[in-house]
Write a structure and sequence with these properties.
The protein has 57 residues and is mainly alpha-helical. Helices cover 77% and strands 0% of the residues. It has two helices and no strands. It has helices spanning 2-21, 31-54. 0% of the residues are buried. This is XapX domain protein.
Length: 57
């Protein structure tokens, strides 16, 4: 798990460097809304798995 986090961070840093060096806008929404959106996706997955486990059919 830690390896995945570090690889994600490394990929993000590389993308940030490349986009800034090419003077392109960073392809990310504002920080707080982005974090909330990612949390929403994760929460949606957990809700689906919870409901699917308890569905009577």
């Amino acid at each position: 798990m830690l390896q995945q986090i570090l690889l994600s961070l490394l990929a993000g840093v590389i993308c940030g460097v490349v986009f800034t060096a090419l003077k392109l806008p960073i392809p990310a929404p504002p920080v707080f809304p982005a974090i909330v959106g990612i949390f929403g996706v994760f929460l949606g997955m957990k809700v689906f798995l919870f409901v699917a486990d308890r569905w009577p059919f």
